[in-house]
Please model this.
Amino acid sequence: MHIESLKTFLIGKWCLLEIQTNTGLIGIGEGGVHGFPQSVKATLDSLEKFLVGKNPMEIEHIWQTIYRFAHFRGAVITSAISAIDIALWDIKAKYFQVPIYELIGGKTRNKTRLYMHINGETIDDLCNDAKKALAKGFTAVRFETTPDEYYNLNVDDKLTQSAERVAAVRETVGNDIDVCVEIHRRFSIPETVTFANMIQQYRPFFLEDPIIPDSLESMASLVNRINIPVATGERFHTIYEFRELLQMRGADYIRPDLCLAGGITNCKKIAAIAESFNIGVIPHNPLSPISTAACVQLDASIPNFILQEYTGEAEPPKNKMVKAPLVLENGYLIVPETPGLGIELNKEYLLKHESDPPEITTPMAPDGSVVDW
Model:
């Protein structure tokens, strides 16, 4: 068996991949740099010549060959490798007629617990969305604390309004639901320390990326100054970044993105590194149903899985991108028993609905400087 061709689909911020073999087996994957999906597509197109004719079963060898080529690496490269890796695992598992998790250690659980994104410009909107999530059976919710145009507020207003949103959601969902607080890198270290003291009484499950995570040392310093768990790692794309973060005690939970951090192959290694530090894994997943399916395969196979990010897949275009979604029951995704990823692309829909990538709309502060989005 050998790889015969690659096909990519650009659907807004999503870059999907299909790998065809000469036997008719098809694997699907996804690249995760959703701000620049056209760059991931270009990288995948450039790798087709190398991949055609290769044995799709030699996943680690193909992974290492691409990663070590030409000295230069980065998020776009590992995003393309991730898409290829997920698709190759899909092919291999279909060849053996088993789910992917059976090839990477076997199943450790029957379903994966989700946290659902809730949204709302006002506190009332946010709380109403939280009620909808509870009605659907979700046992954990996640939301952004900062109000719209937070960058136009002074520090006291920004922190006060953010804390009010946390308090309102906690009051709405009660004590039996886990509340995950997303800050999206919008605070400084001093702001986060103050904010953590303000909301500690509401017992957040975690604060996600309160500061820009590029400096591991800064994140570790912050973690040691507050009493709320910190989750980070969605921007990281190598085992080395995660290892060094954990060596510095810079996270209480890690958030690898399977479509950015090297696919199933590399994220299985990242999860093992985290396990050695007694750290749980909460995979990042803002992407399509392909990303979700890949995450569930990893979640099912690791002992230190905690929660799975989920944005919902009942509305278009997500509910049109695959022929049948994974089964959602009371806030859990059921681990599929079908071969491979457990899903199939709806190529007819994808071919008709390819669309342009998002425009760059980074916000500006009142003084004209760029703020982190």
